[in-house]
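Need a sequence for this fold. Nothing fancy.
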């Protein structure tokens, strides 16, 4: 969990730095997109897209494509001046992919929010290094949100479909509640008659 937290915070810091560069704050759109393309190449696959949005939610990504993001749960919070890491969500460009977005406000010369920078990473990229291990012989590593919804699991059918707080197994529900309380954890438990 600590490794994942560090990875997420590093990405957020990168997007905050990008949002505070002079070219992004004061530059023309074509200069900003050129800068984003350079950063996209430098990050070598960490980000699926890097884009800039105006206050109406028109996000233009590094290749020039524009999508509307004002309905996203994080948009209004960023417009209030906060940096945000989203929960996993379907990509607006290709909804078959799940992404996590890292969003930071862009300020004008008077320190008023004039838009945001968004860096989106595929969810599998986010979790591939942080969950590439097993606990014991049969342990499975997966990640779930505060509401119990699975956001990463080796069985892709469970992602965004299964909620551990609503599990048929009381042991799994109890374990999930413990981990949510502690913000991380692992345990050996008998679940559905099998030692895990």
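Here you go.
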């Amino acid at each position: 969990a600590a490794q994942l937290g560090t990875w997420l915070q590093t990405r957020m810091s990168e997007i905050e730095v990008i949002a505070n560069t002079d070219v992004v704050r004061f530059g023309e759109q074509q200069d900003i997109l050129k800068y984003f393309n350079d950063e996209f190449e430098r990050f070598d696959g960490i980000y699926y897209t890097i884009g800039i949005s105006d206050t109406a939610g028109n996000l233009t990504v590094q290749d020039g494509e524009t999508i509307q993001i004002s309905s996203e749960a994080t948009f209004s919070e960023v417009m209030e001046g906060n940096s945000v890491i989203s929960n996993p969500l379907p990509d607006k460009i290709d909804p078959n992919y799940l992404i996590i977005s890292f969003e930071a406000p862009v300020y004008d010369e008077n320190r008023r929010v004039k838009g945001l920078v968004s860096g989106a990473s595929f969810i599998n990229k986010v979790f591939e290094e942080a969950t590439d291990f097993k606990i014991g012989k049969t342990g499975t590593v997966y990640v779930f949100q505060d509401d119990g919804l699975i956001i990463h699991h080796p069985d892709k059918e469970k992602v965004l479909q299964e909620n551990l707080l609503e599990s048929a197994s009381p042991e799994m529900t109890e374990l999930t509640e413990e981990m949510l309380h502690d913000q991380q954890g692992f345990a050996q438990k008998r679940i559905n008659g099998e030692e895990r």
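For context: The two ends are 19 Å apart (CA to CA).
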